[in-house]
Design a protein that fits this description.
57% helix, Nucleotidyltransferase, domain 5, five-stranded mixed β-sheet, 2 domains, Helix Hairpins, alpha/beta, rod-shaped, 288 residues
Length: 288
Amino acid sequence: MFYLGIDIGKRTHVASVMDDAGKVVLKGYSFPNTFEGGHSLLTRLRTISDDPSLFITRMEATGHYWLALFSFLDEADYFVHVINPIQTDGWRKGTEIRKRKTDIIDSVLIADLMRYGSFEDTSLANEDIFSLRQLTRYRSYLVATAGDFKRKIIAILDQVFPEYDTIFSKVGLFGKASKALLLEYSTPDAFNEITAHTLAETLRLASRNRIGLVKVETLKTAASTSFGIRFAQDAFTFQLRSMIEQLNFLEEQIKQTEEEIRQLMICTASVIETIPGIGTNYWRNNIR
């Protein structure tokens, strides 16, 4: 059996191989993080053995730089363990008297750690768990971006139509009806130029009959006495409509991402439920 340790870098990786007796048969082989680099590593490994099953491979989950090589070696039938770098640091402290740290030393240490078997795989090596982690992070990014757009929309309304956000609740301000109104009528003048009947019909369709004439009358009154600015309105209107359209897009992306997460949670329920505090129905109730 051979133990392949790989020190991961952004542009370049370093590999070392150790046999059962602890002899280093390949030390500090440097190769680029490219398709050609991956094949050059395979060429060197085949000088040791043509059988991938004779290699136990291990690399650290260093940022996202390990992913391409992990995928490449997996496709080449090499079984790869992925572990947290903390485990390597602990092994270094116990074996390296001088506590040195170089790419070559680390790759040898990783191979030695594999030989002794004193490690635990990170769950990142599980494709579904990895996908779930990626999507939950992406959802957090989308939600944060949508929140930023909401704050910017409020800032523009404060200048153009400051009374508007007092008419809708905090949630209702970014509801379908309110956003439909702002896309169609972005300034107090625009609200003043339409009839109450037209405004009521727009609200009725956008809210599915949930918003009535009282809201229409309140909007018309607020628009007629608005203290919003009167200059550069075209610029503000353009920004407002553009940001609402982007917010709509982000909210649709959030829904689609949540559905992908929900499907993955179903696939990984048995793993997720091993986490303390998460019961059988937790994932069903928290991913809609």
